[in-house]
User: What shape does this take?
Amino acid sequence: MHCLNHTHCAETAIEQAEQVCLARGARLTPIRKAVLAEIWSGHEATKAYDLISRLSTAGNVIKPPTIYRALEFLLAHGLIHRIESLNAFIGCDHPDIAHQAILMICDTCGAINEQSNEALNQLITQISDQQAFKTTHQSIELHGICQRCQAG
Ligand SMILES: [Zn+2]
Ligand SMILES: [Zn+2]
Ligand SMILES: [Zn+2]
Assistant: This one.
């Protein structure tokens, strides 16, 4: 996804996360918010070790478990999605609505475009139901070249 004003885009996402947490009685602590803001620094995948190095300062080295706990919280509240194929994370811009993400990952520029499709989800449910398979986690990731990279 390529937005026109990313500062606005990221600020909106953080504000939305605050509202979602407030509505659910969950606490977006400073470290959770810092991790979310860092993930929202762009529309590319962010790895846990990137977060550790970017959020640590000379006088304050953030320990991996701190980052992992913050990531677990953000995942649990749907504020971010895990990108299984990259072992990385991306912010979600509609955490207030229950959905299954389809992540389109550009292998040229790294931009990730999130979409969701109810018909596709119903089809997946139908297929798994037919196999009496109880799905606990669903991940749809498409790798390829985004519209912008194809044009360039
Ligand atoms: Zn943006
Ligand atoms: Zn999402
Ligand atoms: Zn691209």
The chain has six helices and five strands. The pocket of zinc ion (ligand 2) is lined by residues 81, 92, 94, 99, 101, 114 (CB under 6 Å).
